[in-house]
Design brief:
Layout (H helix, E strand, L loop, with lengths): L19 H4 L11 H27 L3 H22 L8 H21 L4 H29 L4 H4 L18 H4 L11 H24 L6 H22 L8 H22 L3 H29 L3 H5 L13 H11 L2 E3 L7 E3 L8 H9 L5 H13 L1 E3 L4 H13 L24 E3 L1
Antiparallel strand pairs: 1-2, 3-4
Helix pairs in contact: 2-3, 2-4, 2-8, 2-10, 3-11, 4-5, 4-8, 5-9, 5-13, 5-15, 8-9, 8-10, 9-15, 10-11
Bound molecules: fe (ii) ion (4 copies).
Length: about 425
């Protein structure tokens, strides 16, 4: 039996107001929680923040008082959902531990979306961003080790590798050239629309988390590292949101937001093993089905449009989490030298083909005038410990170390793939002695 979100019945809005005791629940145990339960919790917080924020934007453009009242009612529910989800985070989970969770979301979610994206250009954009978040995970892992003595696998639980990728100091672009070609709302598939909205929500929340928490450490180099990576997340939000057709109406966007919430909660509910979280995903799925019904009624009434023509008649699974090591390794080895081409084509090129007047060079020079904090991170850990913390298949690490020695740019000239054999000893911990 297929699940058609437009036909399923949810919980009425008046029953969605919960007591403070139901809104604020007991947090999960950071020592016992499965890493993918944590990634779902991090992502769904981002989904709710976007759902809430978008409804404020809608209201500010909406002259219809009745619609504003409806939006206000739903928006409050989104806000209480956000509180429930985000506050499942235990107080003893440090900012850096949560940060590793955020980057694990970015890596494994983007890899999943890229493999389930029907639009080739959108997929290419996902793969491009994926490598950047993969490098953030590596840089933050060094800090988690230095500041808290944490093995990054305490958080990522061997499901995601910790390796240098396209170096963060190279992620800074002229923000104008981050802007991509948008899909055509009339022909793009619902999957593409939901995939992008899911990722935009995740990236936006990642940006906000760094912006709000990077100052909570006293170490200036770590604060600067958060500042540097926070700015890359701003570029990611700019890049991914620009894939969305700006001609979509507000009612259409409202429908897509509620549909994305239905799909993500459905996916979380289906995959969740943790009993406490599973109950939340199930209840919130029922909330969102009602939000979707209301959004459908609004677009039918105000635009005389059939919601099914926009979102289809079946569920989409935009946030299934599983280990993506092999996929990420192949993108890493084949695409680490990829760069935005900076032309009106909004395409991609490789580092060796960039001209001297590539717009991002000027930005990189200005930001990097006193050095890149993310590079200093690696100098600090090697000075302090004589080590670089990396985890992954030893063959891949060896290969990567060789490539780094030769200069990362040579990776582009040596395309190769990683075979399943390379992952045989994936569970082993590898610390590269320098
Ligand atoms: Fe919601
Ligand atoms: Fe990131
Ligand atoms: Fe990102
Ligand atoms: Fe909603």
């Amino acid at each position: 039996m297929t699940f058609n979100p437009l036909k399923e019945k949810g919980i009425s809005l008046d029953k969605q107001i919960r007591s403070w005791y139901k809104i604020v629940k007991r947090p999960f145990d950071k020592h016992k929680v499965d890493c993918y339960t944590r990634t779902r919790q991090i992502l769904m917080n981002g989904i709710e923040v976007e759902a809430w924020n978008f409804k404020h934007a809608f209201a500010r453009f909406c002259p219809d008082a009745d619609v504003c009242k409806t939006i206000a009612e739903i928006r409050r529910i989104e806000d209480t959902q956000q509180t429930t989800v985000n506050w499942m985070t235990p107080a003893e989970q440090s900012v850096l531990e949560t940060t590793l969770g955020y980057e694990q979301v970015a890596v494994d979610l983007t890899a999943w979306l890229a493999q389930n994206e029907p639009d080739e250009y959108v997929k290419e954009t996902f793969d491009f961003g994926l490598l950047e978040d993969f490098d953030h995970l590596y840089r933050y892992s060094q800090w988690a080790y230095m500041i808290h003595g944490i093995d990054p696998n305490d958080i990522v639980q061997h499901q995601t590798d910790i390796l240098v990728s396209r170096p963060t100091q190279n992620h800074h672009n002229d923000n104008k050239i981050r802007l991509r070609k948008h899909y055509d709302r009339k022909i793009a598939s619902p999957q593409t629309k939901v995939n992008i909205l899911t990722l935009v929500s995740g990236e936006q929340q990642t940006h906000n988390f760094y912006a709000e928490h990077g100052m909570m450490y006293g170490n200036d180099d770590l604060r600067r590292t958060y500042g540097e990576i926070c700015d890359v997340e701003e570029e990611h939000v700019s890049m991914y949101e620009s894939l969305i057709d700006p001609e979509e109406t507000m009612y259409e966007k409202l429908l897509l937001h509620e549909f994305t919430e239905v799909c993500t909660y459905y996916n979380c509910y289906k995959d969740e093993q943790d009993e406490q979280l599973k109950i939340i995903w199930e209840e919130f799925l029922a909330f969102e089905l009602e939000h979707l019904r209301i959004a459908s009624d609004l677009i039918k009434k105000h635009e005389k449009r059939d919601p099914e023509e926009i979102i289809g008649n079946e569920i989409i699974e935009p946030c299934h989490f599983e280990s993506q090591k092999e996929y990420v390794a192949n993108i890493l080895i084949n695409e680490v030298d990829k760069r935005l081409d900076g032309t009106d084509d909004k395409s991609y090129t490789t580092i060796d083909k960039l001209s001297d007047n590539w717009p991002s060079y000027e930005v990189q020079e200005k930001f990097g005038e006193d050095g890149a904090p993310t590079e200093k991170t690696i100098q600090l850990i090697t000075t302090a410990t004589g080590r670089d913390i990396v985890f992954g298949a030893s063959k891949l690490i060896k290969k990567q170390s060789e490539l780094i020695e030769r200069g990362l740019e040579e990776i582009a000239q040596a395309p190769d793939t990683v075979s399943a054999d390379d992952y045989k000893d994936m569970e082993s911990l590898d610390i590269v002695e320098l």
